[in-house]
Amino acid sequence: MNKNFIAGEWLEGADINLNINPSDTNDVVGEYARADASQAAMAVDAAFEAAPSWARSTAEVRGDALDRIGTEILARREELGRLLAREEGKTLPEGIGEVVRAGRVFKFFAGEALRLSGERLASIRLGVEADVRREPEGVVGIITPWNFPIAIPAWKIAPALAFGNAVVFKPADLVPGSAWALAEIIVRAGALPSGVFNLVMGPGSKVGDVFAKSKKVRALTFTGSTGTGRSIGMTCMERGAKVQLEMGGKNPLIILDDADLNQAVEVAVSGSFFSTGQRCTASSRLIVQDGIHDQFVEAVIKRLSSLKVDHALSEGCDMGPVVSQAQLKQDCDYIKSAQEEGGELAYGGELLTRGTPGFYLSPALITETTNQMRINREEVFGPVASVIRVKDYEEAVTLANDTEFGLSSGICTTSLKHSSDFKQRSTAGMVMVNVPTAGVDYNAPFGGRKNSSYGPREQGGYAKEFYTSVKTTYTLA
Ligand code: NAD
Fold first, then answer.
1. What is the chain's pLDDT, residue by residue, as a tens digit (477 residues)?
2. In angstroms, what is the span from residue 341 Cα to ligand 1's centroid?
3. Which of 152, 237, 318, 343 has the smallest number of Cβ neighbours within 10 A?
4. Does ligand 1 have an atom closer than 6 angstroms to the CB of 429?
């Protein structure tokens, strides 16, 4: 059994979590310890004890630790990518791609540790020196979802450690394998002092709740659904802790009449259906101008029918299974609700049988939808996209912004005027022109607006906003 890592030791949990392969439910990926609330509290205590000395460690020591971790992740990309594909259902190339991203994130923040800088301001008082510096927050709580089981933990753990914080980390219950493998590398290759990094696998309602409520956790970063994020956010704010929430999306992709049709189809299919559509940045609303609408729909259907949906590790697989039975039911319920409201299931949405028992669903395209339908208001989080027909660019922009979410948005067009205007008027945190709404650079800020995000941006140089606290000092020499 793979154990939790608490206070410098590998510990058994209160019970055991069976990690099941969604491509083959007979395949148990592994047994993982599940901690309870008392073990979560133990981890928080250990991190609290360890935080001050880690905060005083040199940037070089921290940078070197991250660099070694990144090197090992990259060297083991095939093996870890296979594990990820097996437990989460991404295809093998997608799994390997995610592992590479995680490795590169550690390398990036190894450098960021050394680059952290302050500022000298001109004081308004004669002879006084005014300095601004950044210091670690102390203990950072990290709670992650199942859909990027190694990349999201990496892009939170790496900056937390780089800037001198101690970490308590809780991965999603559904996918403990990649998180455990990452933790094992951090513990061994990172050679961190005892208590600086703690892995606490277990249910959100027990382990995550302790992180959110503990006064010793000064900053909490969460990625997951909007409902859970909101409630964790309230708990943190009640006790005055810093909180960063990355939540759901209902991302629009506009296709204008002047778009390059082949490019638009690739952008839409990749953004909506790759990684089985289980991405917060997935294009779930395809807003298509009247003149290109029919051609576009026909070409997307043709492209979807060429996709191979199968066991995530099978040769040539384009789209793996849905992650779980519960998620599959949610996807099917949304497809049904769209049809009941007048949408037409133009392609897919069928349960598929493959060589192994798994949660297989063909990519679903729903046409003739309006922006008011449930399918276009709520996040589905599966291989389901709907098409909304619009008369012109103005209507497209209005509908794209008419959502409670604001993570990512996109436009396919050859018009400089419209792409420039859209970059300005889109109410999303990330705007894409002729590239998929999903798929971002690890050295650029990531995050959204409205119900999609709360708090400072993640990743790139902007990550320091959350993982450090600004201190201003005045000195009269
Ligand atoms: P979820 O909200 O169910 O769970 C996320 C994490 O929170 C898990 O680790 C879970 O165990 C924990 N948790 C659950 N209840 C808790 C509680 N009461 N207290 C503390 N922790 C608790 O989300 P999920 O189903 O794992 O992930 C899918 C969601 O994640 C989607 O909504 C998706 O859009 C979102 N997501 C957002 C981003 C982003 O960056 N915006 C990225 C990936 C996924």
1. 899 999 999 999 999 999 999 999 999 999 999 999 999 999 999 999 999 999 999 999 999 999 999 999 999 999 999 999 999 999 999 999 999 999 999 999 999 999 999 999 999 999 999 999 999 999 999 999 999 999 999 999 999 999 999 999 999 999 999 999 999 999 999 999 999 999 999 999 999 999 999 999 999 999 999 999 999 999 999 999 999 999 999 999 999 999 999 999 999 999 999 999 999 999 999 999 999 999 999 999 999 999 999 999 999 999 999 999 999 999 999 999 999 999 999 999 999 999 999 999 999 999 999 999 999 999 999 999 999 999 999 999 999 999 999 999 999 999 999 999 999 999 999 999 999 999 999 999 999 999 999 999 999 999 999 999 999 999 998
2. 28
3. 237
4. no
- CATH code for the part of the protein at 251-433: 3.40.309.10
* Residue 146 near ligand 1, beta carbon < 6 Å: yes
125: how many CB neighbours lie within 10 A of its CB?
9
As a whole number of angstroms, the distance between CA 237 and CA 378 comes to 26
Catalytic residue list contains 317: no
Q: Assess if CATH 3.40.605.10 describes domain 4-247+452-476.
A: yes
- The answer to whether the CB of 385 falls within 8 A of the CB of 349 is no
Specify whether the CB–CB gap between 132 and 116 falls below 8 A. no
- Smallest CA-to-CA distance from 266 within 298, 303, 317 is with 303
Q: Which two tokens stand for residue 242?
A: 């810093």
- Phi and psi at 75, nearest 5°, equal -65, -30
Query: Which of helix, strand or coil describes residue 171?
Result: coil
280 is catalytic: yes
The ranges assigned to domains in the chain are 4-247+452-476, 251-433
